[in-house]
Amino acid sequence: MKKIKGGVTAAKGFEAASAAAGIKYQGRTDMALVYSQKPCEAAGTFTTNVVKAAPVKWDKKVVESNVKPQVVVINSGIANACTGETGMECCKEVAKEAAKALETEMESVLIGSTGVIGMQLPVEKMKDGVHLLAKEKAEGLEMGNLAAKAIMTTDTKEKEAAVTIELDGTTVTIGGMAKGSGMIHPNMCTMLAFITTDAVISKEALQAALSSDVEETYNMISVDGDTSTNDTVLLLANQMAGNKEIQKGTKEFEIFKEALHEVNTTLAKKIAGDGEGATALLEVTVQGAETKQQAKTLAKSVICSNLTKTAIAGHDANWGRILCAMGYAGVEFEPEKTDLFIQSSAGELKLVENGMALNYSEEKATEILSQAEVCVVADIKTGTEKATAWGCDLTHGYIDINADYRS
């Protein structure tokens, strides 16, 4: 596997575009298009929030059908959530217009929306935007990057990733883009991820690969504990690489899954590290667990702890907050056996051994915790399983952004 530059247009046969449609923002692009030169097999995972946005309902229906999608239209600024039948009609109108502009079927158009909940999308602006996108679409990494920028809301940077793998002498590429900064506590699988590949792969294998990997990547991040109404991950495969079809249970399937995991992990970490107001990516690994689920639950409890997050913001090695968060996670472990470490580019420090503080340097701890990426490792020493979760620190910037986000 080789990491390469690019995003949704890295794979063969995928084009992209961006446009300023004036949906909510002024002076910036706010619509994006992902287009495949050939119809695709599609897989998807979606929010488990009972309140589901209209595009989530639309996409779920498309993915679960026998339709082979070819187009994704995405807007930022307005989520098209809690918009009733009008919201669903908007999806239909936009899909119909995209099909007309791109000479495809309405049923082959997927929709993505992100932004303020409860506002109706300006349908005519969306339709005009679709024609702008259709006119501008093109191949190339720059076009993918522009699309990644267009779907941002409170994000401070675009999020892209791409890799290549070799399957029996054939190069297969997987690339993707994502957005997400606040209302991030994916539980599905306002984060969106769009992954593209030129692999020849069965629909069953594609969905299996995505569903299992989401549990290890997007479902292991949290910024603020809020599961969005719009969480969507779409994976499109246009079969243009020319490899032998990948089937579940094969060696090629495992190689494909590993590559997909690299793309999804990279995007998930970029979302976590770009949390609203954040100054640091927080990575928490729990090792020595009896089961994978025990490790996952403990790790995610720590990254969701506001007190731990504020300690990271203050570069304060307040390890008691970490053990406390593990203690209320809802799974058993032995605090008296637990070791805690902190790591970053500034070094590593062991803070706790067998549940008790060591005589460590507070100055060194502060230096380690002052870096842009900070890792916490908890070794509970009762087994061989481990899991990693990602979050960010919590600063006053989060309040500043969200206190008047709608108004």
UniProtKB/TrEMBL annotation:
The protein's annotated pathway: Amino-acid biosynthesis; L-arginine biosynthesis; L-ornithine and N-acetyl-L-glutamate from L-glutamate and N(2)-acetyl-L-ornithine (cyclic): step 1/1; Amino-acid biosynthesis; L-arginine biosynthesis; N(2)-acetyl-L-ornithine from L-glutamate: step 1/4
GO molecular function terms listed in the Swiss-Prot or TrEMBL record: L-glutamate N-acetyltransferase activity; L-glutamate N-acetyltransferase activity, acting on acetyl-L-ornithine as donor
Keyword Acyltransferase tagged: yes
Keyword flag NAD: no
Keywords assigned: Acyltransferase, Amino-acid biosynthesis, Arginine biosynthesis, Autocatalytic cleavage, Cytoplasm, Multifunctional enzyme, Transferase
Superkingdom per UniProt: Bacteria
InterPro entries in the cross-refs: Arg_biosynth_ArgJ (IPR002813), ArgJ-like_dom_sf (IPR016117), ArgJ_beta_C (IPR042195)
Biological processes, Gene Ontology terms: L-arginine biosynthetic process; ornithine biosynthetic process
Feature type site, description Involved in the stabilization of negative charge on the oxyanion by the formation of the oxyanion hole: 114-115
Subcellular compartments: Cytoplasm
Catalytic reactions of this protein: L-glutamate + acetyl-CoA = N-acetyl-L-glutamate + CoA + H(+); N(2)-acetyl-L-ornithine + L-glutamate = N-acetyl-L-glutamate + L-ornithine
A single cellular component GO annotation: cytoplasm
Positions with a binding annotation for substrate: 153, 179, 190, 276, 402, 407
Main location: cytoplasm
EC code: 2.3.1.35, 2.3.1.1
Subunit field text: Heterotetramer of two alpha and two beta chains.
Function: Catalyzes two activities which are involved in the cyclic version of arginine biosynthesis: the synthesis of N-acetylglutamate from glutamate and acetyl-CoA as the acetyl donor, and of ornithine by transacetylation between N(2)-acetylornithine and glutamate.
UniProt family annotation: Belongs to the ArgJ family.
Designated name of the protein: Arginine biosynthesis bifunctional protein ArgJ
Gene name as annotated: argJ
